[in-house]
Design goal:
Elements (H helix, E strand, L loop, with lengths): L2 E5 L5 H10 L10 H7 L2 E7 L2 E10 L3 E9 L8 H14 L5 E4 L8 H6 L15
Bound molecules: coenzyme A.
């Protein structure tokens, strides 16, 4: 199958919302999307024909970079699309000089850490987050 990589903030919100729903991913409301778009510093989509089937984004302030929302449509997983997304994210990261680059992952999703290890990530013990 032919996939197209699209970088930038012209994203297909309908398609991405559909992926989020199918994955039970926390959906962004229509009011949140403009803020998410404005505050994100990098966005990449993978399209199959005209449909967005994968998405990832970064938020950074030139010192630190967080990677968020790495998602692939369930029907298109395990076809290399997550790898295409991460390669583009890493190109963006390497073109900057961030002191830290981090991401969260769901520890219950067995083996997901291995997906990120392929791209040079390691788990760290010294992180905390504010309780909800
Ligand atoms: C995680 C995710 C983005 C990977 O996308 P993908 O398109 O299926 O990944 P790829 O096909 O590029 O797979 C790359 C490699 O990682 C492995 N991999 C992918 N997802 C994996 C998982 N959940 N657990 C273990 N290994 C995984 C693949 O087996 C493959 O290994 P290989 O290179 O040895 O063949 C996708 O499964 C997804 O959207 N999951 C649900 C949302 C999610 O949890 N996102 C992560 C947010 S932190």
């Amino acid at each position: 199958m032919n996939y197209t990589i699209k970088i930038g903030k012209k994203i297909n919100i309908k398609d991405i919302n559909e992926i989020h729903s199918l994955l039970n991913w926390g959906n962004y409301s229509s009011g949140q999307w403009p803020i998410v778009k404005k505050q994100s510093t990098f966005m990449v989509q993978v399209l199959c024909e005209k449909k967005t089937v994968g998405f990832a984004r970064c938020v950074d302030d030139s010192e630190m970079c967080m990677i968020y929302d790495v998602v692939v449509h369930p029907d298109y997983q395990k076809k290399g699309i997550g790898t295409l997304l991460m390669k583009e994210v890493l190109k963006y990261i390497k073109s900057n000089n961030f002191a830290t680059v981090s991401l969260f992952y769901d520890i219950k999703n067995k083996g997901l850490d291995n997906f990120y290890r392929k791209f040079g990530f390691e788990t760290i013990p010294n992180a905390m987050r504010l309780k909800k």
